[in-house]
Amino acid sequence: MTSTIQNTTPTTPDDADLVAGFPFPFLEDRYRYSTNVEPAEQPVTTPAGQWGTAIVDIDSEYRAEIDQRAAILAADPTRHAVLPHMVPATWDAMFTLMRELDAAYPEQMQLRSTGPDEWLWRNDILGIEQHFRYGDATTLPDEPLRYITSQVQEDIALLDQRNGQLFVDAGVVTFAADWSFGFDVGMSFLEIHGPVPRVRREGVITRAHEFLKRLQPHQPYRRSNWTLTIDRRLDVSTEIYPEWGPDREAILLVDDAEFGRRVHLRVEVQHLIRLPDSGAVMFLIRTYLLPLELLATVDPWRRRAAEVLAELPEDMADYKGIIKYRDRAARWLRNAARQSAPTGPG
Ligand code: HEM
Q1: Ligand 1 centroid to 193 CA: how many Å?
Q2: Residue owning the nearest CA to atom 10 of ligand 1
Q3: Domain segments of the chain: what residues?
Q4: Given phi > 0 = left and psi -120 to 50 = alpha, else beta, which region is 186?
């Protein structure tokens, strides 16, 4: 699979690109939690375009998002952690991602062998040319996981498998949706999902855990998750809650035009990959944000998102942090019918 990257240095979001590549998450008019994993093989065609062509997705927000990540890491080092036993997995993760980038974007990204365990990595978008020896930390400017997350839009968590359980023991996570990587690091997969309503009763997380423990190398899987976020704000982590939490009430005071501009459907495309050398599980989280005013330009998305938001049970809306404004979001989408251009059945 190959793609060409266009327009990699925008100062404002490229609306057409954001809509065309948006991974609209709702398969029906009602949303419930499920162990929604599928092989990451086929791109998904939507009424607006396509997503899922590559495991690592580069779009017109590339530079803006990696600049944000660098600023967040500089301000808060707890967004990056590697427990000592995870060092081999960080090399495995970096190398796997370089291979993926090379395969998906060969004109801009290249990984070439230059000798036994010696490699040349080129990222022409960022003007990087780096010789390194696999496993030799002195040959890279940074810790391998941090090095590669400074060149992809994805957040990354690495899970160690031991004693029949998975543990989140390394990662670089700067765009967490209402959770804290620094708090969760070292915790088990089952502990981390403790706060999610319904899932224990319904067996969603125990099934996911069994599935992940059986995951094989070279068989990547993907799933999606979603919420709403006020403004184009990737970092809505627990750490900086005071900066974004109050917006959830303040948004009720704005007029309709501002509401449609500021409320975004936030979708995470998550990839699950068993790393071939270390055996760790790599969890990639790529976050997409689309304001309701752009979502409403695709009529099947507008209609379906309105239904899902209106029907979502209270406990799920509460957990997602959208309980105060989801009814208004549903109404806004229903009322936007007159402005949106029909694009056929979804
Ligand atoms: C939250 C399922 C993999 C970390 C959630 C939620 C669900 C879920 C249903 C609630 C989301 C919401 O309402 O917005 C799954 C399934 C997985 C999976 C089915 C795999 C098949 C992972 C992995 C990690 C992870 C590998 C590793 C970091 C989290 C975290 C939260 C979460 C941190 C937020 C928990 C909180 O409120 O503190 N997950 N997940 N998930 N998941 Fe997963």
Answers
A1: 6
A2: 196
A3: 15-338
A4: left
> Which amino acids are annotated catalytic?
223
pLDDT tens for each residue of the chain, 346 residues long: 333 343 333 346 788 999 999 999 999 999 999 999 999 989 999 999 999 999 999 999 999 999 999 999 999 999 999 999 999 999 999 999 999 999 999 999 999 999 999 999 999 999 999 999 999 999 999 999 999 999 999 999 999 999 999 999 999 999 999 999 999 999 999 999 999 999 888 999 999 999 999 999 999 999 999 999 999 999 999 999 999 999 999 999 999 999 999 999 999 999 999 999 999 999 999 999 999 999 999 999 999 999 999 999 999 999 999 999 999 999 999 999 865 544 444 3
ipTM value, please give it.
Answer: 0.97
Q: From the CB of 223, is ligand 1 less than 6 Å away?
A: yes
285 pocket-lining for ligand 1 (C-beta < 6 Å): no
- Other beta carbons less than 10 A from residue 96's beta carbon: 23
H or E segment at 241? helix 241-244
Span from the CA of 130 to the centroid of ligand 1 (angstroms): 34
With the CA atoms of 263, 54, 58 and 131 taken in that order, what torsion angle do they form, in degrees rounded to the nearest 10? 150
- HSE-CB at 36 with a 13 A cutoff on CA atoms is 14
Q: Which two tokens stand for residue 271?
A: 């990839």
Positive or negative: CA dihedral 295, 297, 300, 305: positive
Distance CA 145, CA 282 (A): 11
Q: How is residue 99 written in tokens?
A: 């291979």
Q: Ligand 1 within 6 A of 40 CB?
A: no
Question: In which region does residue 344 sit, left (phi positive, over 0), alpha (psi from -120 to 50) or beta (all else)?
Answer: left
Left, alpha or beta for 315 (phi > 0: left; psi -120 to 50: alpha)?
alpha
For every residue of 47-58, DSSP letters joined together read SS-EE-SSSS--
